[in-house]
Amino acid sequence: MRRFVSTLALASLVFTAVITSIRGETSENEMTIYTKEQAATGRDLYAEHCASCHGMMLEGGSSVPLSGATFQTRWADEKHSVGDLFYIVRTLMPYGQPATLSKPEYIDIIAYLLMINGYPAGRRALPLDPAVLDGIIIRPRRP
Amino acid sequence: MRYSIVLSALFAAAFLLQRQADADAGPTQAELDAAGESIEWLLPNHDYAGQRFVDLKQITRDNAAQLRPVCIYQAGDTRGFQPNPLVYKGLMYITTVTSTIAIDAASCMIRWRHDWRPKAKEAAATIGSVVVNPFRSRGAALKDGTLVRSTSDGHLIALDAETGKELWERLVANAEKYELMIMAPVIYNDLVITGIGISEFGIKGWIGGFRLSNGEPVWRFNTIPEEGEPGAETWSGAEDKPHGGGGIWVTPSLDPAKGMLYVAVGNPAPDFFGGVRMGKNLYTAAMIVLDAKTGKLQWFRQVVSHDLHDWDLTITNPLYSAVIDGTHRSLVSVAGKDGILRAVDRDSHEEIFKVPLTTISNADVEPTIEGVHTCPGVLGGFEWSSPSYNPTTNMLVAPTVDWCGVFRKADELRYVPGQLYMGGSYTYDPVQDSRGWLTAVNASTGAIIWKYQSKRPMLAAVTTTSADLIFTGELTGDFVVVDANQGDVLYRFNIGGPVTAGVITYAANGKQYVGVASGVTAGFWKTPPASSILVIFGLP
Questions:
Q1: ipTM of the complex
Q2: Checking CA distances to B103, which of A9, A69, B54, B418 falls within 20 to 30 Å?
Q3: CA-to-CA distance for B187 and B211, rounded, in angstroms?
């Protein structure tokens, strides 16, 4: 039992190290935030529900950009988590028809949003667990 | 010694001369007190009482169809444009997000323009991920040659009304935290009075008085009581979740004789998640009556207790007198996004009448996670434009929004700094189901006399005249002249962009004109892009 707890604690420690930040670097730790498959699914959902206002590459349109300096200023300030971003998107978007997608669909859109903003994909899928998402602090992406 | 005495005397004389020149520049306090009789436009709602009635008869029911645009001023701005113009001594003053402009009120020729460059942080122009242009200027205030307005970065600034030269500036609000001073201020004696929105960001609302000579804070009233203040006991719930709201974003009315300020206070936040703010949530969705000199609360009347639908109280004007059961009563018109027009006695505080002017449905049903279809929706009801009171017909003429939708409570509550603190979501009915009303109401009884239906919500200001005419506008871009007796449209002219704010009438060089502002409004009204323009209409 003690060994199991130790293993769990170690795993937890590693997982915490993995999820506590995203910075857009290519270190091994930060390769595990979301998967390319998630982002690809998210891309299709984004195209259907979001791109008409925000642009296909998140460059903005009738509504604000979700990429570049706007994203960095609004979200990558080390005060917001992926959990915050997920909460706002799933409760307020799509504009005029909020909360009409499923949570897995919203999380895939978040993965696409992170990919376009330069945060690298990896082998671990972005989960729905709020505690995990809240632990992922969005840090500035280095140029 | 003798030189210093002479110099001091000269400085004192110069100071007094300047003060006299400022006072001569006007409008004086006496002129403002009598603005109800003015055939110019001295205050955002024409006069302190906010009656929006002008005794002008050149434009009549017979000749209204001959109105034509006289000139157009293009402000060169594509951001939110919802000013209430002022007109004094032949000059019209308008505001955009960053510019303050004086033009000739008969020719649109520009006299001066002042462009403010923000010095403090502004509110980010996003809500969630949507551009809503959260700051907009609804106008300025004018007294003794000084024009005062608020800015997008939390400043009050004062300009010389003759030249546009900046007289002073003072940082009084934290715009970065969405303390946005959207409303046109009120100047009363030596005080500039203004308040802050936006409730949805979880601000704690306040209204304050600032010295006209330099912007120095004089008094402040918190619409969300701090711990230990009266009203704090009306908030209880989860201590780890912030509560707030109580924004003030519409110009109050004022009884100058008694020095009483009638203020409309916005909704509580989080909007749809009431469990963390149990109680009446004073002083949200309430009319508060303050001593204009001290900011002390005299009395209040809450219209929506423990609001759960983003139903700000928005309207506390006009102040007017009417005969009720044979007795003259002093009344105040009170209305908000709940869609109900009320008349309240200013002396006894008794409600004289209440009449719904929009569709009302499921108003008492709390939002659920599954969603509840409710009318009015989050957009009202009454927005920022008030009824006009015509004393010759004893009639209130009110613009309203009729647009329902589904309120949903979120499955969890989270405060994310810089983002909407709704605690849920709102889904509009299809835009083709939205509409607006212009309703004429008997000001003594609340009986509806006639209704005019617009294809879209009615947001524009409403002005009435002694020729029994009504001037207003529509989201479609139409400026319309309506017969006050029947509600028939006598004249319609599309000026190319939504009309959502100032529509005024005045005389310049002996001729009656109508000024109509048009430009961008917030995205949720679903109007096409537009430029900021001011069109002046007149007879040939």
A1: 0.75
A2: B54
A3: 10
Q: Give the minimum alpha-carbon distance from B528 to chain A in angstroms, rounded to a whole number.
A: 10
Residue B236 domain-assigned?
yes
Number of cross-chain residue pairs from A and B with Cβ atoms under 8 Å apart:
66
Distance from CA of A56 to the nearest CA of B (A): 14
The residue of A53, A62, A64, A117 whose CB has the most chain B CBs within 10 angstroms, and thus the best one to mutate to test that interface, is: A64
pTM of the predicted model, to two decimals? 0.90
Q: Per residue in B393-446, pLDDT tens?
A: 999 999 999 999 999 999 999 998 878 899 999 999 999 999 999 999 999 999
CATH for B212: 2.140.10.10
3-state SS assignment for residue B51: coil
Question: In this structure, how many other beta carbons lie within 10 angstroms of the beta carbon of residue B215?
Answer: 20
Q: What is the mean pLDDT of each run of 10 residues along chain B (540 residues)?
A: 61 59 81 98 98 98 98 91 96 96 98 94 59 75 98 96 98 91 97 95 95 98 94 88 94 98 98 95 98 98 98 98 96 98 98 98 97 96 97 97 96 88 93 97 98 98 98 97 97 96 97 96 85 97
Q: Could you tell me if B334 and B313 are in contact, meaning their C-beta atoms sit under 8 angstroms apart?
A: yes
The C-alpha of B511 sits at a distance from chain A's nearest C-alpha, in angstroms, of 42
Q: Domain limits at B137?
A: 43-57+69-538
Hey, is the C-beta of A102 within 8 angstroms of any chain B C-beta? no
* Closest CB to A63 among B130, B412, B418: B130
- CATH of residue A94's domain is 1.10.760.10
Total domains, chain A: 1
Interface test with A, best of B129, B369, B412 (most A CBs within 10 A): B129
B24 falls within a domain: no
Q: How far apart are CA B442 and CA B306, in angstroms?
A: 30
Chain A contact for B419 (CB, 8 A cutoff): yes
Quote the CA–CA distance of B251 and B33 in Å, as a whole number. 16
Q: How far apart are CA B120 and CA B169, in angstroms?
A: 12
Domain total in chain B: 1
